[in-house]
Amino acid sequence: MLLPVYAYGQPVLKKKADPIGPDYPDLTTLLADMWETMYHADGVGIAAPQIGLPIRLFVVDTGLIERKKDKPAVDTDQPLKMAFINAQIVEMNEEAVSYEEGCLSIPDIRGDVERPDVIRIRWQDESFQEHEATFTGINARVIQHEYDHIEGVLFTERLKPLKKRLIQRKLESIKVGQVRTDYKMRFFNVR
Length: 191
Hints:
Layout: E1 5-6, H1 27-40, E2 45-47, E3 57-61, H2 63-68, E4 81-92, E5 96-103, E6 106-116, E7 118-124, E8 130-136, H3 137-150, H4 161-175, E9 185-186
């Protein structure tokens, strides 16, 4: 089922998400709905706060990035399609790399964000089996972007100060629903 994507200004996007356990109701259905919503919105990742749930859950499919490009990848990492439950970043390298990002919750705004190119993360899969692995390149970037969502951080907060000032009016327009998307969104009630 397609779920509405919560837009910039929704309080759930600024809340640190809570962990979940194996008894979380209808997790299989929720994950299927998140994948469907992400693909329908032409995204490469989506986190539970973006669909209104303050829980530590996100999904990524970096293979979609390659299918969107006209040129071959610079990144040599294998595409990643995975769900992350109760994720915790345990290590990041010092060197940051800049790359243009966007977000389903903040349509029509893109900007260069500096992030570490290598991360080590611990998470659980859909069966709540523990994993820990190192990710690099675009996989590390997309994971960090979605991880930020479960920490209550938006990519716009990581932009340079001038860019932040330049997009402020657009952000306010998004907040009150003055934006068009090809997917259903839920906007902040300003009353």
